[in-house]
Amino acid sequence: MKTLNLPNKISVFPISNFIIFPKTTVPLNIFEPRYIDMIDDSMRSNKLIGMIQPKNSNVEFNQPELYDVGCVGEITSFNKTDDGRYLIELKGLIRFRKIKELSNDNKYREFEVNFDDFKNDLNDKKEEIKFTDLELIFKDLKSLFEKKGFVINWKALEKQSLDEIINALAMASPFSLEEKQVLLEAKNLTLRKNKISEILSTYSYDIFNNTTLQ
Length: 214
Known about the structure:
The protein contains 6 helices and 6 strands, in the order E-E-H-E-E-E-E-H-H-H-H-H. By secondary structure, the chain is of the alpha+beta class. Strands 1-3-4-5-6 form a 5-stranded mixed beta barrel. A hairpin with a 6-residue loop joins strand 5 (86-102) and strand 6. The chain starts with 8 loop residues before the first strand and ends in a 5-residue tail after the last helix.
């Protein structure tokens, strides 16, 4: 298992209907001044920020209530555009549980966090799941993605490791923010695979009867 000097205080970037998993990388387009400040501060220190979902996607104020579990990511690529935006790539490292919000003078939010429940995220060992176990899930996911107008390069995806495939599909899926949060909080890959299957079963009538997805 890797060792990582994890801080007990992190800045958080709340994005609705967006999750990141350990060992996955996502691009982000940063343009709000408070999050420009957050990235500036992170680049000057440990290059870590916490990604976490607000509980309500319709919240319009600056301090939405957040879920308890998010994922810390490391900034692995940074570019500034001519119009002042930051284009970064964030690599997921380990999930965290928020303990309490901290007072600060910044425009962005900071939390005391704990990583104890998710130390296995740092384990390099691949979890054993047979690819054949996933074929039906892939079939149903593909139907759902196509109906929602999502485009996925399935051939390229199948060349990745199983944990990368499952996490990438969970992140890119057209599931609700609540469903994505369930996937994020699943303790391990097998549970996450099972949760995807359970969630897909709620869509199955629409998928196989060619009706409109809600």
